[in-house]
Automatic annotation (TrEMBL):
GO terms for molecular function: microtubule plus-end binding. One of its GO terms (biological process) is spindle assembly. It is found in: Cytoplasm, Cytoskeleton, Phragmoplast; Cytoplasm, Cytoskeleton, Spindle pole. It comes from Manihot esculenta (Cassava). This is Protein ATEB1 homolog 2. Keywords: Cell cycle, Cell division, Cytoplasm, Cytoskeleton, Microtubule, Mitosis. Residues 13-115 form the Calponin-homology (CH) domain.
Amino acid sequence: MASNIGMMDSAYFVGRNEILTWINNRLQLNLTRIEEAASGAVQCQMMDMTYPGVVPMHKVNFDAKTEYDMIQNYKVLQDVFNKLKIEKHIEVNKLVKGRPLDNLEFLQWLKRYCDSINGGIMNENYNPVERRIKGGKDRNSKGGQKTSKSLQSNNLHNSSSGNSVGLSKISGLKQGRGSAVAGGANSSADIETLSKEITDLKLSVDHLEKERDFYFAKLRDVELLCQAPELEDLPMAVAIKKILYAADTKESALEEAQEYLYQAMNNGEDEA
């Protein structure tokens, strides 16, 4: 089933926000960046939710910070793939670097796969927080490693932060009412103005993210075309990849590609 998810599948056009919402809703987390899932723990728990009892959660380290600890998580994930006969190679060396695009691509594939199992229907009896706690306790009792609670504590921290923010809002509203009674409706007008500005900013951010995802998909199409076996050694394909894979935004990337293409064309004419 997983082998049928090709690089041009619609799964790879799912945006970052949708992936984060999917993870946070299912696992009761508060991730804000794709690279926060680079440790492999999130992927392991997604498979645990999809196939209850298959993932040895006591081996999953939710507090993994070093590449060594992250690799251990991906070993658990690969063992699960092998057990379920899922033909998916995990690019561990790329994922543990925390690069957003690599991790986004893997999570896009994972979402597509999980959605294909039972129509993507969530297991209502699955308690992600409880599973993380149990996994941490089991690993602590077995190996003496530090109990992994970063994701759980992050969730609890955000919950407590939400409570404090809620209290702050209530307090602010009370103060605002007092000011309105004492000094008129100026505070209400200010609140409405700020609310409108926030709404406008959110709309702008959403628009920019959609535009970014659109152009990223275009670049990905160009990359896949240049990687085709019958085209990848052509001078034009090599020149394009020099630009795509430039280490930074240096201006010389285009110049280097043009120079390479010019030399390749001249060499071809000389041979002819």
